[in-house]
Amino acid sequence: MPGNMPRQNRTIGRALRAVGWTTLFPAALIGVSGERDLRHLWGDPDSLAARYWWLAPAKVSVASALLLFSWWAIRRGGRHLTPVLDSMSTLTADTPIVLLLRVFPDDERIADVPARAGRRSGWGALPRTEEEQLAAALSPFGTLVALADPTEDLPQVGALRTPAADHEWRAVVRAGITRARLVLIVCAPGRHLRWEAEQAVAHGDPTKLVLVVPDEARYQAFREVVGPVFPQPLPDHPGASSGIESRSVVRAAVWFEPDWTPRLGDLDFPGSLVGVLAASRTPVRTGFPLAILPVFRRAHLTPVGLPDGPRPRPTLALVAAATVAASWSPVVWWMVTTRLGGTPTATTILAATTASGAALLTARTAMGGYLSLKIARWLASTLALLMPFGIVARGIGLPAVLVWSGFIISFLLLRCRPMHHWTVSRLLYPPDKPAPT
Hints:
The protein is 55% helix and 8% strand. The protein is of the alpha/beta class. The chain folds into 3 domains: 10-80; 88-298; 315-428, no CATH class. It has a 7-stranded mixed sheet with strand order 3-2-1-4-5-6-7. Strand 6 (252-256) and strand 7 (262-266) form a beta hairpin. Helix 13 (315-337) runs antiparallel to helix 14 (344-367) and helix 13 runs antiparallel to helix 16.
């Protein structure tokens, strides 16, 4: 395990990132145009897009190729520019760290982008790798640090790499375990990883040790090779899930009580806090802290973007609910006056259903319902985006503009930080239970 320094070139890194970001813009424009043409191709057979039917898939193909190239260039450039530590002692003594222990072959896997995040990022977005998301998720504990892979020319982006020679890497690991505020072990079978786990158990604190659980086969192999190191048996794998891809490294987490009792936190349990609060574009950054939330609370830390305790209902909640109700009332009235349903009976049923749904949504929003707020926010943003086309096409006057403005205001109020923290705090700190200390 020689301590070779990576062959980074900052000039090449800047050039690659510049080319990548420059390519990303036309890729997004071509991709959006291609998707629009595809919709016209199926929805309007007489359109220009249908006449030149081959152009839409060609646009999407070109955009996809440009997007993949831009992602590669930006990430490759980032690997040239990411900082590398001469040694772990380079960091000042008061700098908290999170020590990442793994087998080196896992670097390529953990530096991948989860397919679910990539699919939902849209044209022009740059989804983060799992390692980048882990570094962001655990940033309240400190800087993510890992030993450098001596066979790699360039370090991955995420954890700060520190090189270590064959004769010193064990001492570096011991020092890192002693210093780290949190020790993270990516489960995989390996002789060196077993030794590192032995050091974490022998010299570490069980409350600051967390295992990253990958797919079932690798986790089972880890339990067989490394599992006997732990004072108590490790829990079973949570099983296959339709929401997390098989190639994803971060599928669950295991944390420990002070007596080494292991606890499993699944990143894709539909009815859990993770399933409700984790963002699909950044499932690791937003889901991993929720899976190990007791670890954060024991350290008196708060995950990024989450409230640090119960929050009272803000005044904006009532204002937002009133704005939502005021925006939907003209819509219901318009349904009735224009007989949108075709017949009086159909119109009455449609208007009554819409009015009941809007009233229920308004009431739940005022009460702090998290899913209700998300639905109300989505509806407000969708109508705010679509209404201008109807206003221009139909020549609707001032009343429609006011309703449109109401939906924009509703979206902004529902999206503000006090509303988000209040509704999330109701899930993390239920009103009928005392806040954890």
